[in-house]
Amino acid sequence: MTESQQWIDRGENVITKTYGRYPLVAARGEGSRLWDVDGKCYLDFLAGVAVNNIGHCHPKVVTALQQQAAELLHCSNYFHIPKQIELAEILCQNSFGDKVFFCNSGAEANEAAMKLVRKYSSEQHGPNRFEVITALASFHGRTIGTISATGQEKVKAGFSPMVPGFKYVPFGDITALKTAINPNTCAVMLEPVQGEGGVNIPPAGYLKAVREVCDQSDLVLVYDEVQVGCGRTGKLFAYEHEGVEPDVMTLAKALAGGPPIGAMVAKEKFAAALGPGTHGSTFGGNPLMASAGVAAMDVILNDGILENCRAMGDYLLQQLQQLREHYPFVKQVRGLGLIIGMELDIEGGDIVKTALDRGLLINCTVGKVLRFLPPLTVSKEEIDEAMDIFDGILKEI
Question: What is the enclosing helix (H) or strand (E) of 102?
């Protein structure tokens, strides 16, 4: 029996079955590569689902964690934390934001944003203005609140009743959004690019039109950039592509280069609604996670990561488009930077399993969209290697 199988058997006895896990037992990672406990090497074009944007175990993040771990692992948010302040300064200096709230995950960041928009609207317009419009095919997290906000029925099955106060409209349809607004609406929350929903990119001008609608109706505009922020689309934040600023933005995944962290960034006008005692997070922005965040953001901003993402994103998109021309079951390839989806007219699960067997990690979302999320540090040679594997799989189909 392999060491991998031994670990899998042990895990089956004690770990909840909340994930459909593949038979890979991860041992170590470096850059775009991941090794299992049996020594097999994989090209990681999933990157921890857009967490490892600067690759596995980036030396600057590892060093920051080691140094901070020797000094202070955790202290209460009742006190001031230098690295937390430093990370907040970096986020505010490089975005529209004025204030940052730190937490531990994307779901928590979205919960904070939903509390903020309701609190702000309650203060400005009274208690009846609490509804949030989100998009069909959206994904905002796994808490009861964030699955209520998510525009996918599959994540809600068995968890009723949902939290009231959410409406869903087709992504990219400004007319539907306008129609959904009523006197109880307080905010619009969107992903600038839908990741879990199938790598859906809005039509040109859509986000600008959403911003105008929110301004006209005094609605708070929230962007969920949990997956597409921190450089994934080739700019630090996805909203920069159209230059349309939100009022509130949520981040997580790649913010600390691997360690768990989340953040809500907001303009002062809105951030002021959450005063002392209205919200909190025991571990949010603690010294260890914040130190990793400072290091990761330094790499993204100063080490040519965004430029490489744009260049390699164009190259990977081109390679996948060429494959589309050869295989009739490939319907469409779409993406921005290094979040790219290949939509099929067949189920994609078996392709993911075959790719795993051959040393390539990708995933499939909404059944038929293969998703490619390599580290933003990926090289042309690594993309060529991945495409050789992938092309071989498609040929067999």
Answer: strand 99-103
